[in-house]
Task: inverse folding
């Protein structure tokens, strides 16, 4: 598939990845080598993706994968107004409104950060981003 996001967390012990294959997005977390601890495959229409709003000091996007009442929000930010375009990211794990964990990408480990192909896949699936409600709806 098309890689959208990748970094390591917990001092390189685990890798977090998001990729897109056709109209299915995949979230994976686990050891850098070996079987995933959690692998989620979701149709793009079921992913809550928050695209960059086009303003601010950084480009910031989030893609959330839901599973059994838990949410896994993969996010990244690219600093736009510095000489070095610093990239940061991580995963926020939630259950309802409760944050269970914030996994921060190890410094310098974000090797891919581009959720725009997911945005394009959602629009191809007949969804449109509403800038007024900050949500996806049918076109």
Result:
């Amino acid at each position: 598939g098309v890689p959208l996001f990748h970094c390591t967390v917990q001092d390189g012990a685990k890798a977090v990845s998001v990729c897109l294959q056709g109209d299915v997005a995949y979230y994976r977390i686990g050891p850098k080598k070996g079987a995933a601890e959690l692998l989620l495959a979701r149709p793009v229409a079921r992913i809550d993706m928050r695209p960059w709003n086009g303003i601010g000091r950084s480009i910031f996007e989030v893609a959330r994968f839901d599973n059994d009442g838990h949410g896994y929000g993969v996010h990244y930010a690219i600093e736009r107004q510095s000489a070095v375009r610093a990239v940061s990211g991580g995963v926020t794990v939630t259950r309802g409104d409760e944050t269970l964990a914030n996994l921060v990408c190890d410094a310098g480990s974000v090797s891919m950060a581009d959720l725009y192909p997911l945005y394009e896949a959602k629009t191809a699936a007949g969804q449109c981003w509403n800038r007024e409600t900050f949500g996806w709806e049918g076109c």
User: Anything to note?
Assistant: The longest helix spans residues 116-124. The chain is about 5% helix and 55% strand.
